Protein: Phospholipid-transporting ATPase
Amino acid sequence: MGQIMGGKNGPYNHVDFGKRIVTPNLGTPEPDDRAGNPYYPDNKIQTTKYTILSFLPKNLFEQFHRLANVYFLFIVCLNFVPQVQAYGKEIAMLPVIFVLLVTAIKDMYEDYRRYRMDKEVNNRICRVYSGAEKQFKGCMWEEVRVGDVVHVGCNEMIPADLVLLKSSDKTGVCHLETANLDGETNLKTRETALPLQEAPSWEEGEHFWIECGRPSSDVYKFNGRIKHRKTVLPLSKAQLLQRGCVLRNTDFIEGIVVYAGPDTKAMLNNSGPQYKRSKLERQMNIDVAFCAVILVIMCAAGGIGNGLWINWYPQDSAQLFIPPIEGQSEGLDPALDGFIRFWMYIVIFQVIIPLSLYVSIEVIKMGQVYFIHQDIHLYDHSSDTSLQCRALNITEDLGQIQYVFTDKTGTLTENMMVFRRCAVGGKDYAHNIKDEMKGEEALRKSIVHIPGQTTQDFIMDHPMVPEPNSILQEAVESVYTEAPPSGEQGNYSELEEFFMVLCVCNTVMVTTGHHDPQESIDQQAIGATSGARWDASGDNIAFEPETDSTSTGNTSQTTPIQYESESPDEAALVYAAAAYGYTLLERTPRSVRIRKPDQSEITLGILNILHFDSTRKRMSVIVRYPEKNEIVLYCKGADEAIFSQLDANIEGQQEKQLTVEGHLLNYSQEGLRTLCMARKVMTEADYLTWQGEYTKAAQHLEARDEMVYMCACRLEQGLTLLGATGVEDRLQEGVPDTIAALRRAGLGVWMLTGDKQETAINIGYSCHLLQKGDNVIRFNCHDGKLIDQQLKEICLQLGACGCQQCRPQTASCMEKLHNFCCRCGHTVEASNTCLRQQRNGAVDASEVGYGASLDITKKIRRVVPAAWIGPDEDVRHMPPKQNSVKTTKSLQGNASSGDPCLVVDGRTLALLLEEQRADWLLAVARECKAVICCRATPLQKANMLKLVRDRLKVMTLAVGDGANDVSMLQAADIGVGIMGQEGMQAVMASDFSTPRFSFLRRLLLVHGHWCYYRLATVVAYFFYKNAAFVFVLFWYQLMNGFSGSAPGDQYYLLFFNILFTSAPQIVLGVLDQNLPDDALSAFPELYAVGRESRTYRREHFWWNICDALYQSAVMFFIPYGAYADSDVGIWEFGITVMGVALVVTLAHLAIQIKCWTYPHVLIFLASLLLYLIFSLVYSAACVTCNPLGNPYWLFQHTISTPEHWGLLILTTVIALFPRFLYQYVQSVLFPTRVDRARLFTTRPYGDERSSTSTATSFVIS
Structure:
């Protein structure tokens, strides 16, 4: 048992409840095993939401959080009031019970699955040290407690979050596979918390304690400290082994549990799918409110009509529908009777607010997500991964995106770095790649062989390994010869130090050998502990030289060495150094062993590693040369981060910096990623002084990051520049075509990157974000006063305005133009271009710039060509593009007739994002075809996206692959994470994850279009169907004196929506296609249907309500007139009306379906058969089910009459004829783009008009 912590020297004497104190459980167990660590939960996990006893009340409580369920519960309770009762008390509960029951069964099934997975995980066996038995013994995972010492073997899973104390590796490290936690497949290195010579002895019961922070869901952060033998050492993520990870390439480890069960990072990240409310759902909720208003109006009309009816008739002849209250001889007051009828009508007309709408939409979205996952075109064979949806309720938003914000590195590019250029000794050296390979071939050949020390041959087949530059190769070889080439004196040490930076200043792992598992591990159930199982498998960067197993090299025995890196940049630099003979052989937490070109080996002691962060933009490693006992700091980073730290007093430093800056400019113009290398020699005294400050900062828990940052900045000063590198990051396959398709679809594509401006511009041209002839405006201004003047100058040149006075009129003008273009079938992009060009020519720029009041009507007349708005307008052709009208000058004074494109650097962006300039920035950005923000920080990326999203009220999508993109992904309406080389943080924070950027084309243009069209159609149909049915009931009230009775059996009334007509619209929402996928991919312009919300708007809602009003009148009054003055009773009349309503609503839906499949046909037939079978059985067997009447054999009798079938056909034709006629006329005389595309896709392939050029002009016109 761990020591009691309340004693004199116990760590709880200074406990801070913002921290956690952990002591090892090494003593003899006592009845209360929690005495040492009493406040922390055990390792048992419980992801279930319910127990057997709590399921019913808790599930009902959760379901009634939905306002619609509360509404219908209120209706059920209202129906229990005798004076208001419209249906049988038990019967009225059936629809609500059905919906609640379906949802409860779904929740129960999901919870039972979680229970089984929890049980499987909790019953796993691990080994925990027993203080009584002085040995490790088997223990179930759920019995592990904080403070337990756990033994884990190779290929076994970590049962809880452990701090590593012992490792079988002689260097005190172990290797973890974290794929179950974050999806990353490359191994991570962890090192022991204590020096090897101070490893604790469990048998002696040696005590120590650990102080760490509260449990956190951040899998990449851990701060703490350990006190052992009067020594306090800092702890970081390098010592933390997280639950769910698997031990690899290490025989065993032993660690102490610091977080268990629900406190582990795996469980804290088990939050399930993200919830976002889609744009269509927000609009739908408003329309539900309109339905409530219609309901109140109808109920009020019915109540007033009832009161007037009673008031108009003499008292002796009035037929009161509610018995008089006892003691009142004069009967019920008309006003009171009307008030009561109002509430009765609330019960009768309740279904105008669709009860099953939300449940149906959930089912539809689940089906849509399933088919997105099954799309073979969204599967990447090279990585064996496919697109995954993590947010299940925003699929339709994929079809309504207006702006795309994308990162560059790893998103548009492969993030597979290739060493291309380097500058050292004042000279620039270019490199080529021996073999250009792609995909699986590259992975199969990713092996580097270095024969034994008897030869200097370097045979490399890995695609990332460059071919050595002959001049630089000669210079390197000359370092170790007596006769250096002329002109190279004085550069030998600098050249060697340059390559030493490439070898040492990184975190590349060197692992050897293979280990057999101590026991088989069932990994299938890890999803219960980690919360998200990623189907992504990133590419490990492997480098396998054959090296001697000993440092002397006297034996021919070789063991394979494998290189693995979390950063592709670092891997590329290590490959480059190996190409010139500087081979990394071994890395431990305390040392690094390197083989030089002359086959000699050197081992450097690693004193400290200052890891890279996005603020410093540098990484440093402090090493000690044992032979010279010299302490050297090697540093690499961005050019601006290195140049600002150089020692200006060193002779020739400034000239060297200017030379390197020239080389870097050339590199960036080629699109290469650049880094600078530097070094600094330290004295022992200086290092010890700094080390004391750094140790104190590292032991701090609350402000550790800030204090370590300050220490690093103080040390990384007075550097000596060594050189620079240029690494190529190739574009992903299909990126240019994808961006071009997104641009054709009308989406604004912005690139936000942390790279240099020249590199970003070069990639912009490569991916077709920028094109030749574009007017690229480079806005680089770091002066807060000057920037306002330059910003307004750009606005005047572009005819834009960002002042508060102009914004309402500009918005009104654009809204009118937008509505007009949508009505005529033109693109808004064309209107924006025309508006911009006409402003630059016809409108005085100064007038627009200073926000003069303009007449909106005249302005639209002036900027829109006459052919667009004339009575004889030709809507079949796009207006001509007017590229020659505008001549815009950039800040550099270069004239260009191309489209404007804005490029902004990070420092300028920080000023532009300030509140007083934000509107002007947006005004300029909206006039530009493309926007590139370079040197942008993660926060700036998120703020830029928020500015566009909130100020312009547009739908945004963000794409990224790294941790620096997380804030941007979370700020967007839809975040898409790329499964790349920079880990899985972006994927974990995203709504959708994809292995390739090019998959966005199909995801948005095909699946996004389908999902929006389907759901928009289903929502509109839901409102129509329920309104039509309720209006039929309302018409009946006009014919019976507003009595509150219904035309037919109450079972038909209640089951009409939840049984007879519920399935067909679900099939439409999951399977229907208004266009085939190849047409949507070939004609990106069709995406405007969803981007501009053309399928479902407010006017569509009211149009469907009016259509429902007309159809309901036809469905009621035609049978009413046909049965007038006949002996047909109310029940036979009701059966006919219900049958007509069913057929009309299903036929109405059939008209909407654009792609009939077998499921469509089967579901429609099944709905009709269900109604028929239910009616036959109910009418034949349920004689006493309805106490208000006897339905016996009524249905059989009614359908046997010819009048019934004649009315069924006649009413259906008359009810649907206007809609059918409208759709036909609209598709023939006023076709939309979708109509044109559908017509084209149905043409014979032999038709000469099926050529691509003809099709494109035909569809987008």
